[in-house]
């Protein structure tokens, strides 16, 4: 699954730690999601999208292999 978290963070000028704090996860979790090493739960994906004021589909996109 692809995601736009890094881009959206840059737009808001927030760090991985800032985002993690807003949704109550570790910075390492945000790093793993951004690096496509971890696929977030639906709830976590919705929390991330809410921080950016976007829909889940605007932040996350299925790969051809998903």
Protein described:
This protein is mainly α. The protein contains 5 helices and 2 strands. Helix 2 (16-23) packs across helix 3 (27-34). The protein starts with a strand and ends in a 5-residue tail after the last strand. The model has no long low-confidence stretch (mean pLDDT 97).
Describe the structure in brief.
The protein is mainly alpha-helical. The chain contains five helices and two strands. The chain has a two-stranded antiparallel sheet with strand order 1-2.
Name a few traits of the molecule.
66 residues, globular, 6% strand, 5 helices
SSE order, one letter for each helix or strand: EHHHHHE
The helicity comes to 55-70%
What is the count of β-strands?
2
Spans of at least 5 consecutive residues whose pLDDT stays below 50 are none
Largest sheet: 2 strands, antiparallel
Instruction: State the separation between the terminal residues, measured CA to CA.
Output: 7 Å
Alpha-beta classification: mainly alpha
Arithmetic mean pLDDT: 97
What general outline do the C-alpha atoms trace? globular
The proportion of strand residues reads 5-15%
Strand order of the largest sheet: 1-2
Give me the Rg, rounded. 11 Å
Helix count, per DSSP? 5
């Amino acid at each position: 699954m692809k995601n736009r978290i890094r881009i959206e963070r840059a737009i808001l000028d927030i760090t991985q730690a800032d985002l993690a704090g807003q949704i109550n996860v570790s910075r390492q979790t945000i790093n793993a999601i951004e690096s496509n090493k971890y696929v977030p739960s639906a709830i976590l994906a919705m929390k991330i999208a809410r921080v950016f004021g976007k829909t889940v589909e605007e932040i996350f996109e299925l790969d051809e292999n998903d």
